[in-house]
Write a structure and sequence with these properties.
Blueprint: H1 3-11, E1 17-19, E2 25-27, H2 29-39, H3 48-55, E3 61-65, H4 69-82, E4 87-91, H5 94-104, E5 108-112, H6 120-128, E6 137-142, H7 146-149, H8 153-156, E7 161-163, H9 167-170
Parallel strand pairs: 3-4, 3-5, 5-6, 6-7
Antiparallel strand pairs: 1-2
Length: 171
Amino acid sequence: MAVRSVQLMVDRGELQAWKTPGGHRRILRSSLDAWLAGRGGAAMAPAAPATAAASGNRPLTLLLIEDSVHFQNLISLVVKRELPEAELHVASDGIAGLAMAGRLEPDVLLIDILLPGIDGAALITSLRSHPQFARSRLIVITALDEAQRAPYAFALAGVPLVHKTALVAEL
């Protein structure tokens, strides 16, 4: 299909999508599968992940959006130890994290507040505005103290917070 045809399908509501801050559309896999099923078309290859997800048999998917390699490694070790069957994906900045979140639709998003590209507060606000992330659980990871977090309070309301000094114990 031509890109313009897909854009028009999104604009008409035939496919569910959201736009990145750069204006690119990210189409939900479930929306495309539903569109194909409605047309009697062939399922997308590979069909196994969508089938597994629909049956509830897919592994827990986590997306870590953290720019510090040290904390990426530490969280990776904790996840491997505590959730060995889980799939952990890592993004090093807010823009890449937002794109990955749209592609993966993770079960859990672990988000640092201070990120290059888009800060964690803007990222959380963006994720909350899209219905496909309603089932995703957000957890903020930060080294900021309470006073330093005050400017981000609008985005942090109701989101569990893990301070980096207590990361291993609390995560």
